[in-house]
Amino acid sequence: MFDLYRGRGLNLGDTCKVYRNLNNQRFSVVATSGDHKGKVVAHTDSILLSEVKFKISEASRKRALRESTRNVHAFAIGKVVSLTSQPHNPKMISVTYHPFKLPYFYQIPSMSPVSSTPKLYLHNGKAFCY
Q: Which of 78-82, 85-89, 96-100 is the least confident region?
C-alpha cells in the first residue's frame, strides 16, 4: 500500500530518502528536491530504488546510543523505480541497520558492511539489495 502524505507528490525517477518508520511500521519517503525538500511525501509498504547509497548521521547515531533511544538518522537514498510489490528475486540479499549493534548498514547473515547497491527493494519492514 502506498499513501501520499498531506497531498504531496512523488514520481517515478525522483530521488528520495527512505527510512523505516517505527511508529507506523511502514517506510517513510522524504523528498530530496522540489517544493517539499526534506519533508515526508509518502508512506509505503513497498518501494524499489536504484542507484542507492546508505547514509547515517553520525551525530544522531551517537545521540541514540547516549540516550538509549531510537531516532531517525539512517536512510537509503536513491531513485524511485516502483511503488508496488515485486516478485521474489533469488539474488536478493537481506540488509539491515541497527545502531546498537553496528555503526553501518550490513548484510545478513554475513554482517558485511554495505554502503551502496544498484537496487534496493524495501518491503514490509525489510530491505533487500541486488
A: 85-89
Q: How many CB atoms lie within 10 A of CB 1?
A: 10
Q: Would you say 24 and 43 are in contact if contact means Cβ atoms under 8 Å apart? A: yes
- pTM of the model as a whole: 0.90
2 φ, ψ (degrees, to nearest 5): -130, 130
User: Measuring CA to CA, which residue among 72, 71, 1 is closest to residue 40?
Assistant: 72
* Strand-by-strand arrangement of the 116-123 sheet: 2-4, 40-44, 26-31, 15-21, 74-82, 46-56, 116-123, 126-129, 93-96, 106-107
Say if residue 48's pLDDT is above 90: yes
Q: Which residues 6+ apart lie within 8 Å of 17 measured at CB?
A: 29, 30, 32, 55, 75, 76, 77
CA distance 45 to 121: 11
Supply the pLDDT for residue 9. 86
- Please determine, for residue 69, whether its predicted confidence score (pLDDT) is greater than 90: no
